[in-house]
């Protein structure tokens, strides 16, 4: 029996729960099940029928308001007027592909690269994070001459053939590629070590050695620098430097998957990798760059990209189209003009402190960690043994939903609340978010 996907199945609706739904929701789900493929999943035992969004808030079909603590795709906030206006203007003029000359892709690329380390000098565009990571893997292999890719135990990097084969979070029903090796994530809460960075570097060494024993040449390490699917593991600043030195010494490249930690979300730097003082070889970006408009990107060291692009043409029909570039430009404008990186740092620190205070009153909260507006709250059955409590986490999700707060879980045990709201989340939302968790744990006797 395949193990369930931690990111798809843990907090999902089951058909046997249909009897608990109101007639309208049940009918809509039945229509959905008739026409959509069975691989799709819905959140919650009683799925939420959303009809409108604004900022960090959402409304369902009955007019009830929710606080969105999970959706980083609408990175600025739902239905942000700057993105709506930019898309509308460009759609009224032209939308086409990158084989014609157009200013939007050039203007945006110059501005995007200006936010990156100087060593990263080339950009390419796609429509999804999966496509960006897929291309990054191809480039890594062309540059290194190897095939082997290292990922962490609960990593999620996409749904293409290449990326799903390097995404263990999809569960055992999705087999990993023979060229993929899993290493443990740097979980400072559970790993007993005085130097988590050195410990993680040893995991990378072991992974490379295992590839070599199988006759597979190492190509690269692909990581999300906040290890979001592994349970939100921000670590200390600089934690990843030694691991990257190991990667380069072995002839591989570092692929920084910034789909989740990028664009100011972690507060301490514009990019998640910046917290660790790194210059990746390849950086991948996803839909948060367009506030939900399908756009993604790959930023690279020119010499690394050249190994691929000097011999292989690349074309993505709507990757980098003028409308998507207009959306991405509006996002970048807004983050910079409204100081959203600083906002994420300041409001995120207050939110983290509020959750930490809550942990003093609820022993079921084993650990609270995060950077900016990206927080993990780990639930345990015994604080002394740190025994993960997946059942409690799922019950808390349902209690939070009943109090109008939407989020989900992460980590190998499915027991970490993944709290990652749009950047529109403000100080005025903190009491609602934290109070709902307080009330939920109290109701559950935890």
From TrEMBL:
Keyword Transferase annotated: yes
| Protein keywords | Aminotransferase, Pyridoxal phosphate, Transferase
Recorded GO molecular functions are: pyridoxal phosphate binding; transaminase activity
> What SUPFAM superfamilies does its record include?
PLP-dependent transferases (SSF53383)
Q: Which family does the record claim for this protein?
A: Belongs to the class-III pyridoxal-phosphate-dependent aminotransferase family.
Name of the protein this chain belongs to: Aspartate aminotransferase family protein
Instruction: Identify the species of origin.
Output: Mycetocola reblochoni
